[in-house]
Amino acid sequence: MNSQHPNIIRFFGVYENVEKNHVGLVMELCSNGNVANYVVKHSLNWEQKLRLMKGIANGMQYLHHHNIAHRDLKCENVLLDSSLTPKIIDFGYSKELNDKANRSMNLTMNIGTAAYCAPEVIKSQFLLEQQSQMSHRTAGLSTATSFSQVAYDKKCDVYSFAIIMYVI
Known about the structure:
By secondary structure, this protein is an alpha+beta fold.
């Protein structure tokens, strides 16, 4: 997916300095930092808040239309440009939901930020960790307890967006 959406950060390329063993991403400038810091430092009126929320929602809708779950939507992953247009960033945990490999793949492992994560994903992760601890304690014994994993899908991004709205 090559994004030209106004609420998705534009990626221009990669910078590599072999001598210093340094690699960097080149993206559009967002001079107002992230939403988390901006809303703490500035008093926003309702119109500004709604504009931010609408922009983030439009970016999320664009991703979902292309069957992509961001899986780490949070205020820190939304930057603001000079005109306060929100730009969704950090696609490190993103997954294409219609990809056959990802359909059966565990989309709950090592994802998201707990404060923004949907309760069913946290519960599923907690139960899986409990199951793992039980299996370590009962190594070699058969246990009947098994927990299924909750697939992280678009609905979980929507929950994260609700937390972003609360913060704004």
